[in-house]
Amino acid sequence: MPVRMNALTACLLISLPLSGQWLKYPTAGVPRTADGKPNLTAPAPRTADGKPDLSGMWDMAHKLPCDDINRICTDNPISAQFGNLGAGLADGVPYQQWARDRMKNKGVNTDPYLHCIAPGAPRMHTVPFIKKIVQTPALLVILNEFNANYRQIFLDGRPLPEDPQPSWNGYSTGHWEGDTLVVESNGFRDDLWLDTVGNPLTSTGRVTERFRRPNYGTMNIEITINDPKAYTRPWTAKIEQVIVLDTDMLDSICLENEKDIEHLPKK
């Protein structure tokens, strides 16, 4: 599984000078405390039209420790919700019976993500790679290091497509409710996994995300999965992301027919 450290190592091996990249270039406009440190609790920046500006480099908060239990450890460790988006739900994930049966009977290391298949949305939020958000008045773009993957969220008032060609990341439109960006998505493929345990997302699924940036250093995303084919009722997960400063994205290309999976630890 390619990670940021692998990408950096690859760059060094082909003798590209580190100074030719922007891995340590200072982020512009960072609010600072009196001692010069980044003030992550400062108010969130705003765009010219007064909306919260979600732009920046983001990574998952609340990473799991690298120990004998959480054995997939890199320089960018995973979160609990990478393993199970529904982790922490009081009543558990409300599966349809076929979905529960499929999860019990899936084979070892059958996660499409481990075989370099695009993770899809909303799983893009939790994969252990940095994401970059670029926000304009009419369009918000999420760029993902993993396989140079991207997602478009249109803010120009267009409706969701009525009969979309199924896609990995679906089709997304957003609107503002106060300081919260509400994003509706449909048009997903019928075979997506939301996480490593295999919670499914099918072609009937509709996903609602609510993005909030309560301060400079934090972004909260509430994800509601409404997929009657896979679940008996809608369910909601809440994740937190943190700003990443003074660095930039790295290529991390993982192609089908990769061989890393053979070397992952077996439990």
Can you characterise this structure?
It is globular, with a radius of gyration of 19 Å. The chain is mainly beta and 267 residues long. It is 9% helix and 25% strand. A nine-stranded mixed β-barrel has the order 1-2-3-4-5-6-9-10-11. A two-stranded antiparallel ribbon has the order 7-8. The chain has three helices and eleven strands. The chain starts with a helix and ends in a 24-residue tail after the last strand.
What kind of sheet is the major sheet?
Answer: 9 strands, mixed, barrel
Taken from the alpha-carbon principal axes, the silhouette is: globular
Strand order of the largest sheet: 1-2-3-4-5-6-9-10-11
Mean pLDDT: 87
In short:
This protein is mainly beta. The protein is built from 3 helices and 11 strands.
Secondary structure layout:
Layout: H1 4-13, E1 56-60, H2 80-83, H3 97-105, E2 131-135, E3 139-144, E4 149-154, E5 171-177, E6 180-186, E7 192-193, E8 200-201, E9 206-215, E10 218-226, E11 235-243
Parallel strand pairs: 4-5
Antiparallel strand pairs: 1-2, 1-11, 2-3, 3-4, 5-6, 6-9, 7-8, 9-10, 10-11
Search tags:
about 270 residues; mainly beta; nine-stranded mixed β-barrel; two-stranded antiparallel sheet; 3 helices; 11 strands; about 25% strand; globular
